[in-house]
Each structure stands twice: as structure tokens, then as C-alpha cells.
Write a structure and sequence with these properties.
This protein is an alpha/beta fold. It has 10 helices and 11 strands. The protein has an 8-stranded parallel β-sheet. It is globular, with a radius of gyration of 18 Å. The protein starts with 13 loop residues before the first strand and ends with a helix.
């Protein structure tokens, strides 16, 4: 199945994943202008009224870019909605998204039919992130247009399954838009995701080190210096298993090798004051950060991805099997 027409504007088959606290309008705009889908969690706009301002700014700046660059139109943007019942803002945030006719809504932590129907009512599409085949089937049954397969090694809330196994199982029955997440940080990895059967790659952690990202200098430095071995998988901080930078766990006074289990009662969508909070103090990160070598503008990183992607395609074509 071909991708919806709104993806025709992509320079690269990539979605910049929504990063809690980190994704800012500046980062989203830079991603879209560079030819990949830019996204942000609705909850990053605080207070809720700020979401209106963000959507106005993103919409206007991308429209201005299109007028000035008709040969290189901006990619569409996406807003991530946490549809778990603990998100008290969901209804208000969805109403704001409806007003601005957000083209793509990424849903997380539950699949709700009414949310999908709402997005469809204004002409948008929904992509739901899942960690296994069972959740994938539920999401499609409830009206999701596409799936984001969050495999082992992904930053933030992540699954345990190999991307090969996860994509294979989903492609047995689903021919709609499929996006793969999990340690993708190079052009070669993007091509690998497509070869596996995905339509798009989902890249998050490298953008924490983008100049436009709303992350501290220490967090960005941790991404640049970190390797796959520095990632710790734990449910303690939000009640849902996720991947975090080891150094941030140590800095909080905890032993990353002896963390207790969490539960959903620890789920917290606040930036927090006083106590240590995910994602403010406990830093989310995927295993692909070994490919991140410096803090740089998002456009420069995306240009590098494009060069690597084209080189990987040429290299593969030259090999005889």
C-alpha cells in the first residue's frame, strides 16, 4: 500500500519522533523545512493555552517557507497525544488540534476509536505507536491509519522485540503505513528499516543533540558522548518500560543496575519540581546514540542522513548476490 499523499513532500523517509520536553517549535520547523516530518508532544506546550500559539507559529512559518520555496515544500508536521486516562488535557488538546487541522496525530499509551474518528473528521491521519503485534491489531481495529513499531533499542518508552520480528509479524496482515523505531540514527539504518518492510524510519534521540532542541547542555553532551552500553531499560520512572541514559540515573542517586519495578501509579506528565522526574532529570535515550558525534543544527544532521542514505543505496546496488 502506498503512503498517503501528504508524505510526498518528504526528502527522506523519516519522521522525527516527538520528544517529551525536548521537542520545540524551533526543532519541528527545522525538521519540516529539511524534508522530514517534525513532531512534538502536545504536553510540551505548557500551559495548555500555549498549544494554540505553537500550532499557529508552526503553520504560519511552514506556509511562508512553501511560498518562498515552491520547489522544496516543507514536510508535514505531527502532534503526539498521550491517550492514557492520566492525561487530563487530552480533550482540550484535541480540540486545539482540530481548530488547526493538524495533518498527523501520533497516539501513544492506548488506542481510542473516538480520537481516530476526530482526526479523520478534519482530514488528518493517525499513527499509533505499539510494541507488539497484539497492540498493533487493536490499534488498527480502532481506526488507526498507520502503526509505529517501537522495537528494542528505541528511546523513551520502548519495547523488547527485535525489529526484524516485530515488522515481520505486522506485515503478515497489515499493508498500511508502517514506521519503524529503534536505534535508527544513520542513513544506512534508514535504508535497513525500509528493506525490512517499513515505509518510514522514526528517529528521536539524535535530535536531542540538535541546537534547536529544548534540552540542557549536559543532556546534549550525554547524547554525544553516550554509546549503546550507556542505556538502561527500566519501568521505575513512569510505570512503563523505557530506555534512559545511565549517567542521569547515577546523578539522581540511584543504582542503574538495581532499579525496582515501577507501575502506572508513577505515571507523571509534569516537568516536576523538587524530586527527580522523567524526563527532566532522568534522560530518555535510545541505543543508536553512538552515531551522534556533536551538537549541531537539525538541518545539518538531516543533510548528513540524506548523504548517508544515498550512499547506502548506491553501495547496496553495487553488490552482487
Amino acid at each position: 500500500m502506498s503512503l498517503p499523499p501528504l508524505f510526498d513532500r518528504l526528502r527522506l523517509p523519516v519522521i522525527g519522533s516527538p520528544l517529551f520536553i525536548v521537542s520545540s517549535p524551533e526543532l519541528v520547523i527545522a525538521q519540516c523545512k529539511s524534508g522530514i516530518v517534525g513532531s512534538f508532544p502536545a504536553l510540551n506546550a505548557r500551559p495548555q493555552s500555549l498549544l494554540e500559539e505553537w500550532l499557529h507559529r508552526i503553520t504560519e512559518e511552514l506556509a511562508a517557507w512553501d511560498r518562498g520555496n515552491p520547489d522544496r515544500p516543507a514536510a508535514p508536521f505531527a502532534v503526539n497525544q498521550i491517550v492514557h486516562r492520566s492525561n487530563a488535557r487530552l480533550q482540550d488538546d484535541m480540540a486545539t488540534c482540530a481548530k488547526w487541522k493538524v495533518p498527523i496525530v501520533i497516539t501513544s499509551l492506548g488506542a481510542i476509536e473516538e480520537v481516530n474518528q476526530g482526526v479523520h473528521s478534519w482530514g488528518g491521519i493517525t499513527l499509533h505507536d505499539i510494541i507488539n503485534d497484539r497492540f498493533a491489531r487493536k490499534a488498527v481495529e480502532k481506526g488507526a491509519d498507520g502503526l509505529i513499531a517501537v522495537a528494542a533499542g528505541a528511546g523513551g518508552h520502548a519495547g523488547r522485540l527485535s525489529p526484524f520480528a516485530l515488522v515481520q509479524e505486522i506485515r503478515d496482515w497489515f499493508d498500511g503505513p508502517l514506521i519503524l523505531s529503534g536505534a535508527i540514527a544513520s542513513g544506512r539504518s534508514i535504508l535497513g528499516a525500509l528493506a525490512m518492510g517499513a515505509d518510514l524510519a522514526y528517529i528521536g534521540s539524535p535530535f536531542i543533540a540538535a541546537e534547536e532542541a529544548n534540552a540542557s547542555a549536559e543532556y546534549k553532551s550525554g547524547i554525544v558522548k553516550g554509546r549503546a552500553a550507556d542505556i538502561v531499560y527500566s519501568s521505575l520512572f513512569t510505570g512503563v518500560h523505557g530506555n534512559y541514559l545511565r549517567q542521569s540515573i547515577v546523578a539522581s542517586g540511584l543504582d542503574p543496575d538495581n532499579l525496582p519495578e515501577g507501575d502506572l501509579k508513577t505515571m507523571d506528565f509534569g516537568t516536576g519540581e523538587g524530586s527527580k522526574k522523567a524526563w527532566r532529570d532522568i534522560w530518555g535515550s535510545g541505543q543508536g546514540i553512538g552515531a551522534v558525534h556533536r551538537v549541531q543544527p537539525a538541518a545539518e544532521y538531516i543533510a548528513r542522513l540524506a548523504e548517508e542514505y544515498e550512499a547506502a543505496k548506491a553501495e547496496l546496488k553495487s553488490k552482487a548476490f
